[in-house]
Specification:
The protein is an all-alpha fold. Helices cover 63% and strands 0% of the residues. It has six helices and no strands. It is elongated.
Length: 121
């Protein structure tokens, strides 16, 4: 089962899809900071920054102005491999292999190839 942080990350990421936009769930400042750390770790900031902008008027998107600015400063190049790697890690962590998309499978294969190359070296 996903926690509120993961569900909100997915909501902020799914803006590029044609799904109906769900409102974000309320979170404490501490949880928003955890979400921020996760976003930085996986380098998916550009997508989340776009999501924060799109949800600007959402009542439950409540965080300090300083933290909001940190999210918005995560602008950069959207590298699909980073996003797919993040989604793959979420799937792995939750054992949701049935949800793997073709791009996630490609990311998994690339990870596997990298690991094999490292072993061979």
């Amino acid at each position: 089962m996903k926690d509120v942080i993961e569900r909100n990350i997915e909501r902020l990421l799914l803006l590029d899809t044609e799904q109906e936009r769900e409102p974000v769930e309320p979170m404490t400042e501490w949880k928003w900071k955890r979400l921020y750390k996760t976003v930085c770790r996986y380098e998916i900031g550009p997508w989340i920054a776009d999501g924060i902008k799109a949800y600007e008027d959402d009542f439950f998107l409540q965080m300090s102005d300083a933290l909001r600015q940190q999210f918005l400063d995560l602008q950069g190049t959207k590298e699909p491999e980073r996003l797919e790697r993040f989604l793959l890690e979420m799937d792995r962590a939750k054992g949701l292999s049935h949800r793997l998309s073709m791009n996630s499978l490609k990311a998994y294969a690339n990870d596997l190839i990298d690991n094999i190359k490292n072993i061979e070296e």
